[in-house]
Amino acid sequence: MSKTVAAYILCLLGVAVASCTQPQRSSCFKNMDGWAEGQTADLRLDLSDTASAQTLFISSSAIEDAMGKDITLYLSFKSPSGNIFRDTVNLKFEKTEESRIIRQGRQIQILWPYLEIGKLSEEGEWTISLDREKNNNTVYSLIRGVGISVSR
């Protein structure tokens, strides 16, 4: 892992401790102690500066026992004007060429690239809600937080 990537992930971890109520953020993270069914992570992300290509990442912190396991997320994006866009993604806790993982003791932090974005038709603060699938998959009890960020 390059020093630049490692520095970016460490910065993301620093932001993860902060609350997501402030506007003008390029990353947001919600801490949790296991992801209970019906628990939604409502996040706010500033997408005002989209003049150049950017990557939107989904992130999660989990106990290392999650490695190799899959999760399904339901994403809901609400634009500044109130338009809503939905998507579903299946993600695996594994190291790939695209994902980035760091370990701290028994905890892992993973970043999955989700979407390459360019100039948006609506710039400003977007609300992104992350929901988990409704089943008894034990991997969700291992999750310690989820988030979203943009590389600029």
Q: Name the structural class.
A: mainly beta
Q: Low-confidence runs (pLDDT<50, min 5 residues)? A: 1-19, 21-25
Query: Major sheet: size, sense and barrel closure?
Result: 5 strands, antiparallel
CATH level 1 name: Mainly Beta
Shape: globular
The number of helical elements comes to 1
Cα gyration radius (Å):
15 Å
CATH architecture: Sandwich
> Average pLDDT, to the nearest integer?
83
Q: How many structural domains in the coordinates? A: 1
Kindly state the percentage of residues in helix: under 10%
- What's the CATH topology label? Jelly Rolls
Which quaternary structure do these chains form?
A: single chain
**Amount of beta strand:** over 45%
Task: Write up what this structure looks like.
- This protein has one helix spanning 3-16; strands at 27-31, 41-46, 54-63, 70-78, 84-92, 100-104, 107-117, 125-132, 143-151.
- By secondary structure, it is mostly beta strands.
- The radius of gyration is 15 Å and the shape is globular.
- The model is unreliable at 1-19 and 21-25 (pLDDT under 50).
Task: Spell out the blueprint of helices and strands.
Elements: H1 3-16, E1 27-31, E2 41-46, E3 54-63, E4 70-78, E5 84-92, E6 100-104, E7 107-117, E8 125-132, E9 143-151
Antiparallel strand pairs: 1-9, 2-8, 3-7, 3-9, 4-5, 4-8, 6-7
Notable characteristics:
Jelly Rolls; 47% strand; 4-stranded antiparallel beta sheet; 5-stranded antiparallel beta sheet; 1 helix; 152 residues; mainly beta; disordered N terminus
